[in-house]
């Protein structure tokens, strides 16, 4: 089991999502912590490696959660649609050691430090 942290960015993005997608996103984030590193479990979640330290998990037909693995924890960085993830992969060169930024967003902005999430 790996600890999962939420970035401020994903919190803001999630507030703008439809309720059903928000609920699926919360469940997927909770499930990925226990499944990460176990290929048999994370295959069913749709967890896929994007780059050296980044992963995505499918939460809806269109929506993905992008995670950054910092060595100790997974940071749920943002919720993006399929096209945004594809653009981000292309822009990052698919092997970036820096945090992703939403495509067409202001470049040079770094991810804020992750905040621990209290279990419910």
Which helices and strands occur, and which strands form pairs?
Blueprint: E1 3-6, H1 8-15, H2 19-35, H3 39-45, E2 48-49, E3 54-58, E4 63-69, E5 73-81, H4 82-92
Parallel strand pairs: 1-5
Antiparallel strand pairs: 2-3, 3-4, 4-5
Helix pairs in contact: 2-3
In a nutshell, what does this entry contain?
The chain is of the alpha+beta class. It has helices at 8-15, 19-35, 39-45, 82-92; strands spanning 3-6, 48-49, 54-58, 63-69, 73-81. A 5-stranded mixed beta sheet has the order 1-5-4-3-2.
What does this structure look like?
The protein is of the alpha+beta class and 120 residues long. It has a single domain (3-92), classed as YaeB-like fold. 36% of the residues lie in helices and 22% in strands. It has a five-stranded mixed sheet. It starts with a strand and ends in a 28-residue tail after the last helix.
Task: Provide the descriptors you would attach to this structure in a database record.
4 helices; 36% helix; globular; five-stranded mixed β-sheet; alpha+beta; YaeB-like fold; 120 residues
CATH topology: YaeB-like fold
Instruction: Give the end-to-end Cα distance, rounded to a whole number of Å.
Output: 17 Å
Helix fraction, binned, reads: 25-40%
Question: Under the CATH scheme, which architecture would be assigned?
Answer: 2-Layer Sandwich
Number of strands: 5
């Amino acid at each position: 089991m790996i600890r999962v942290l939420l970035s401020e960015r994903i919190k803001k993005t999630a507030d703008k999502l439809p309720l059903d997608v928000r609920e699926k996103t919360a469940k997927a984030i909770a499930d990925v912590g226990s499944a990460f590193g176990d290929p048999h479990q994370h295959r069913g979640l749709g967890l896929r490696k994007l780059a050296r330290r980044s992963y995505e998990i499918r939460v809806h037909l269109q929506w993905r959660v992008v995670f950054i693995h910092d060595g100790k924890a997974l940071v749920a960085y943002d919720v993006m649609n399929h096209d945004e993830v594809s653009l981000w992969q292309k822009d990052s060169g698919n092997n970036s050691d820096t945090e992703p930024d939403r495509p067409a967003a202001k470049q040079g902005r770094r991810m804020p430090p992750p905040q621990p999430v209290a279990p419910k």
